[in-house]
Amino acid sequence: MASQKTIDYSFGNTVNQLRIAQLVALGLQGVTLFMESDRIGLFGFFLPFIFIIGNLFLSGKRWYNEIDGRYDAQQLVNVSDPALKAQYAIALFGGLVLAIITHFSTPTFTSGFASFMYHIADYGAIATAIGCAGLECFEGLRGKLR
């Protein structure tokens, strides 16, 4: 009898790994931006750094408290109050929105290596935010899709 390898999928472990990867990417982004702050000026440093810190806080809080995004996705669809919908949408998609805003507010780097590191971390933060939000939405709405 042939043995088959199965993927041991666990929602909690997958989201935890995505959030850790997002936090590492955001940390690398912040450190790289800070190292280049003397060359890019105060405004070029300050605006994206604020978005990175906000994203670190939001994603870090969700990772540390192990907040389940499936509930946020379910509540986003089920509640009728616009204020609650906005709260759940910010919790669910806030990391992705902040990563995209950071991407578009990125200054021009003079150093090639710093630019490479920053942009790798930038695209990593966007990719992990898309993966995390997408997985939480899919798992949260899977019952409604059937």
Could you explain how this protein is built, in words?
Keywords: Membrane, Transmembrane, Transmembrane helix. The protein is an all-alpha fold and about 150 residues long. The chain has one domain. It has 5 helices and no strands. The chain has helices spanning about 10-35, 35-65, 70-80, 80-105, 110-145. The longest helix is centred in the C-terminal third of the chain and has 34 residues, at about 110-145. The radius of gyration is 18 Å and the shape is globular.
Biggest β-sheet, characterized? none
Mean pLDDT: 91
**Helix/strand order, N-terminal first:** HHHHH
DSSP strand tally: 0
Number of domains: 1
Q: For the terminal residues, how far apart are their CA atoms?
A: 34 Å
**Proportion of residues in β-strands:** under 5%
Note the overall shape: globular
Helicity level:
over 70%
Oligomer: single chain
Q: Which class of secondary structure composition applies to the elements?
A: mainly alpha
Q: From the alpha-carbon coordinates, what is the Rg to the nearest angstrom?
A: 18 Å
Domain DUF7087: 8-140
Protein name: DUF7087 domain-containing protein
Transmembrane segments: 40-58, 86-104, 116-138
InterPro entries: DUF7087 (IPR055514)
Could you list some keywords that capture this structure?
146 residues; mainly alpha; 5 helices; 0% strand
What secondary-structure arrangement, pairings included, does this model have?
Elements lengths: L10 H25 L1 H28 L4 H10 L3 H23 L7 H34 L1
Helix pairs in contact: 1-2, 1-5, 2-4, 3-4, 3-5, 4-5
